């Protein structure tokens, strides 16, 4: 509230001086206007396995409350169509989303359109959709998206942002939606997801998400192609996983790319995933703090926020070593970046 009041007073002062608050001087978004979040899709599986999370004093505490105490205000959850173990299906997502709502946190839903991981190297159709023709595949994207979001809405849970696909560097639902083979098909799949999102809530913002946020040529190729094929989106999403030695260069390149995406397409920008080895917590803190600053610096407040991917992973859970908790199950200094 204080930040908003301050920003309003600055705007009034600039207007009195004959300057537009959006013109000669950039007014940066306040902390409570920027998403500072985490993808914690593993949390129910971890809790079932007996994993516990601890605050700085070593007291066992609910993960959502720990993240909120670190300045986080949003949660991201992936959705799989029919996963073998049930985790990340619609029912599991609903349970985790309810906890986000109960903690007063915004929600991002990340549709993979697969029964398992979808990323730049694999975009495997759900088994139930394997033999669908393209018309049926588009209908499945719409129906699945609409169904999950409607289940959330019926519980009073709003999806503020919705990803249509995950790290879709070369499209999704291969081979039909492989962008390098048929960009038009990928654009049509994106539009089915877009229509479904807006049918549930016109205020939800649709994200198209690619990895390697520093790679401007990749982003231009993809979004030029989608635009040429009349695809619709609200937000361009990015992943960024630098090392402790190259994060400054990657952040600089990412800023250049973000600025280009804003000017070229008028899109808002979300950093949907970040991570760095847990052993490099101090460097990770500097990386996130700098990236948040760069996101906030985008013109017209087009920078929406930054999400850490599975920060609560520790002791090499699932062999993942890019979490932001230490080996005792407490947040590392990396997460302090979200408190600023």
Automatic annotation (TrEMBL):
GO terms of molecular function: arabinogalactan endo-1,4-beta-galactosidase activity; glucosidase activity
SUPFAM superfamilies according to UniProt: (Trans)glycosidases (SSF51445)
Pfam families, alphabetized: Glyco_hydro_53 (PF07745)
Superkingdom, taxonomy of origin: Bacteria
Catalyses which reaction(s): The enzyme specifically hydrolyzes (1->4)-beta-D-galactosidic linkages in type I arabinogalactans
GO BP terms: pectin catabolic process
This protein's UniProt keywords: Glycosidase, Hydrolase
Enzyme Commission code: 3.2.1.89
Membership in a protein family: Belongs to the glycosyl hydrolase 53 family.
Protein name as it appears in the record: Arabinogalactan endo-beta-1,4-galactanase
Organism, as annotated: Pelobium manganitolerans
């Amino acid at each position: 509230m204080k930040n908003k009041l301050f920003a309003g007073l600055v705007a009034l002062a600039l207007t009195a001086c004959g300057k537009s608050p959006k013109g000669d001087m950039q007014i940066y978004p306040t902390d409570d206007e920027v998403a500072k979040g985490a993808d914690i899709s593993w949390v129910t599986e971890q809790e079932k396995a007996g994993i516990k999370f601890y605050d700085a004093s070593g007291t066992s505490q609910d993960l959502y409350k720990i993240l909120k105490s670190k300045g986080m205000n949003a949660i991201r959850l992936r959705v799989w169509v029919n996963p073998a173990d049930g985790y990340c299906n619609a029912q599991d997502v609903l349970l985790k989303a309810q906890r986000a709502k109960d903690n007063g946190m915004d929600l991002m839903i990340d549709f993979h359109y697969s029964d398992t991981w979808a990323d730049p190297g694999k975009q495997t159709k759900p088994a139930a959709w394997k033999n669908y023709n393209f018309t049926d595949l588009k209908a499945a994207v719409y129906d699945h998206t609409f169904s999950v979001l409607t289940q959330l809405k019926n519980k009073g849970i709003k999806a503020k942002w919705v990803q249509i696909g995950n790290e879709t560097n070369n499209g999704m639902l291969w081979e039909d939606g492989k962008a390098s083979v048929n960009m038009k098909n990928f654009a049509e799949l994106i539009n089915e997801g877009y229509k479904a999102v807006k049918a549930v809530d016109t205020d939800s913002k649709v994200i198209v998400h690619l990895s390697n946020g520093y790679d401007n040529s990749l982003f231009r190729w993809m979004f030029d192609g989608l635009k040429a094929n009349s695809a619709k989106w609200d937000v361009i999403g990015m992943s960024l996983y630098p090392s402790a030695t190259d994060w400054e260069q990657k952040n600089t390149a990412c800023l250049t790319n973000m600025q280009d995406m804003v000017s070229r397409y008028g899109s808002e920008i979300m950093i949907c995933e970040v991570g760095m080895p847990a052993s490099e917590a101090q460097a990770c803190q500097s990386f996130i703090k700098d990236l948040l600053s760069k996101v906030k610096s985008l013109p017209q407040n087009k920078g929406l926020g930054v999400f850490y991917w599975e920060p609560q992973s520790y002791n090499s859970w699932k062999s993942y070593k890019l979490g932001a908790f230490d080996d005792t199950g407490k947040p590392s200094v990396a997460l302090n970046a979200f408190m600023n």
